[in-house]
Description:
2 copies of one chain form a homodimer. The first copy, chain A, is α/β, with parallel strands linked by helices. In chain A, helix 9 packs parallel to helix 10 (199-214) and helix 11 (231-244) crosses helix 12 (256-268). The mean pLDDT of chain A is 91. Chain A has 14 helices and 12 strands. In chain A, strand 3, helix 8 (139-145) and strand 4 (150-153) form a beta-alpha-beta unit. The N and C termini of chain A lie far apart (59 Å). The longest helix of chain A is centred in the middle third of the chain and has 16 residues, at 199-214. In chain A, the strands form 2 sheets. A 6-stranded parallel beta sheet of chain A has the order 2-1-3-4-5-11, sandwiched between helices. A 6-stranded mixed beta sheet of chain A has the order 7-6-8-9-10-12, sandwiched between helices. Chain A is elongated, with a radius of gyration of 25 Å. The first copy, chain A, has 3 domains: 9-52, no CATH class; 66-168 and 303-328, Rossmann fold (3-Layer(aba) Sandwich), CATH 3.40.50.2300; 170-299, 3-Layer(aba) Sandwich (Rossmann fold). Chains A and B meet through helix 4, helix 5, helix 6, strand 2 and helix 7 of A and helix 4, helix 5, helix 6, strand 2 and helix 7 of B. Strand 2 (101-107) of chain A pairs antiparallel with strand 2 of chain B, so a sheet runs across the interface. The structure holds a DNA duplex.
Amino acid sequence: xxxxxxxxxxxxxxxxxxxxxxxxxxxxxxxxxxxxxxxxxxxxxxxxxxxxxxxxxxxxxxxxxxxxxxxxxxxxxxxxxxxxxxxxxxxxxxxxxxxxxxxxxxxxxxxxxxxxxxxxxxxxxxxxxxxxxxxxxxxxxxxxxxxxxxxxxxxxxxxxxxxxxxxxxxxxxxxxxxxxxxxxxxxxxxxxxxxxxxxxxxxxxxxxxxxxxxxxxxxxxxxxxxxxxxxxxxxxxxxxxxxxxxxxxxxxxxxxxxxxxxxxxxxxxxxxxxxxxxxxxxxxxxxxxxxxxxxxxxxxxxxxxxxxxxxxxxxxxxxxxxxxxxxxxxxxxxxxxx
Amino acid sequence: xxxxxxxxxxxxxxxxxxxxxxxxxxxxxxxxxxxxxxxxxxxxxxxxxxxxxxxxxxxxxxxxxxxxxxxxxxxxxxxxxxxxxxxxxxxxxxxxxxxxxxxxxxxxxxxxxxxxxxxxxxxxxxxxxxxxxxxxxxxxxxxxxxxxxxxxxxxxxxxxxxxxxxxxxxxxxxxxxxxxxxxxxxxxxxxxxxxxxxxxxxxxxxxxxxxxxxxxxxxxxxxxxxxxxxxxxxxxxxxxxxxxxxxxxxxxxxxxxxxxxxxxxxxxxxxxxxxxxxxxxxxxxxxxxxxxxxxxxxxxxxxxxxxxxxxxxxxxxxxxxxxxxxxxxxxxxxxxxx
DNA sequence: CTGAAAGCGCTTACAG
DNA sequence: CTGAAAGCGCTTACAG
Lengths: 338, 338
């Protein structure tokens, strides 16, 4: 039990020679208070190292002073990927500036989902940022309808969703990747796709196809092999592609993990990169710069996207009616695989 | 403003036909209550989806129901590495089982450090888990002395520290790595070390040297090149080593990021792996399995270590006087670089 | 075992 | 602008 003697509002009021109400007014911000009183209170608070008791404050304001960052399901895998930690980091930074706590919530079981729903509806957090929502998970929408400010990382799968989101411009990014491969002289460009039941998977494939079309390349479904955003998936898909198209000389993998798998498959097949085959990934995960050879990839501004997510919930928490979706620009980072 | 009508203890008491005190007793656990009353209260609570108001509870119990996971300083770099997210994930899981919230705190500036110190001393969290402490940062010890339960990820640099910690068995892990290289027939084994102002850097070098000594290999300071746990550092150190020891045929890098850099340097120098040179990393970061070729490495059970950290703070929070340090075993994961 | 009551530390109308 | 007072939703001695 730390500091049995933590200073209270009363003690700073006493020291400043004003009432608790006045002290409270200067410390909690807004109300008009005389310059004299304000200074005295601030001085007293500083001298006592006063920190308001958040529990007491919450009890009356019905604001918890915290926002949940919720991760749905495949926890460990998710944490091992770099996307999540970086979104988290961005959101945390933004929230910290407003002195709101970021509470990390992981939902694996049905019980946990139910408990969180009650918890959130009970006003124990002021808002929620969902990362990694699967398919058309109704939870975010539910909570929103219950009046809780909610935002999503990634465009929702469900077209009818009215939950604001921030997403990278996946279509444009994939187009950039394809264009780059073509510009580098590739003649037979293939792609390892993400899961087709995820928007991000669909969009990156869509961008790739659109760019080939723009270059008057004939599209063929066999040019794409499905992956699952994992290294193993990327390796397997690349092996299949190699079999199908012995003459392939360009690979666009829909994320860096799969691109790493592609690099492994290519090395195993004795193809040199970028000599025989050029490869582009997506995300600019830390692993991209660590690959052999270092991977050319499409960067998405993940940390900035995390900040944006936080900014959006906060606006909603502050009473703003609605908030526009944001689609963040991507950028090609050329390294050694092209 | 979610659910203006969140059920309170009073409403469940009324529905159950008992007093608020009785309802409180059954819901908050311990006290003896008649079976009848208990059932009625539980039923009423379930029907109303009652969730206790944590703010009100905290106000009286002086327990926040939350634990801080604090990260010191080099935020983004730290988040990009896989160690942190995995510790976080383990700690979160363990905390969730006890229904305590994990609040993520990042301390970059001096102001933030001071604010957090006041905040923690003010009882706004029940305990703190420090990850990534630099050198002999006095903050954890400070807080501990102020009565806050604190635990550390990694053995403290400061010998005088009395803060409990959990660490991987770095010495043993490094010995395993060196032994493996030697057993695979390497004759000239070198190492890329971590920063020498970090315990983990020192320990991994110590283990490496000890194992060479055990194999009656003559030690030479030039066999070690300093890295900084980054890919670039690993690449540069390996280049230096290659220059110094043209005949090197085994590299132990003190973490996987640097091992990835070593792989890049070796490829650039035209050395094949594992044909000409064998390489072992440390951590078994996700990047290890994604490397080309897939990296042999020493795994540390990071998620389990995160859980252990949480278990330890919780024990301290529950009033346990002290808690023993834990040193987690490591394990060699052989892949394709050896 | 159970109820009435006090009190945790704030915020915020309500008067003045 | 400022103070006295009520009240947020719990927990916990204190009686019974």
